[in-house]
Amino acid sequence: MATKEEYEYGQRALINSRFKISSVLKNWDYERNGVPTPIKLSNLIPMGIKTVQKHFKDFKSQINEINKKEQERLDGFQ
Hints:
The model has no long low-confidence stretch (mean pLDDT 93). This protein has one domain (4-76). The longest helix is centred in the first third of the chain and has 23 residues, at 4-26. The protein contains 5 helices and no strands. By secondary structure, it is an all-alpha fold.
């Protein structure tokens, strides 16, 4: 069983990881980076691929919004 300090460290790490992913997604450049994937996020953030994959599903709505905005932008060119 984890000690209180270990638990608190784990919670801080969790919050920090999610914050980093969220920040990168908020400033996502679709033209330069393409579709957001765990591998692309891992390359942009100093974070391991397994960590990004663990949290990726929590950002599906944010990623869907990025994809929707890009589709709307592309539809504007037609």
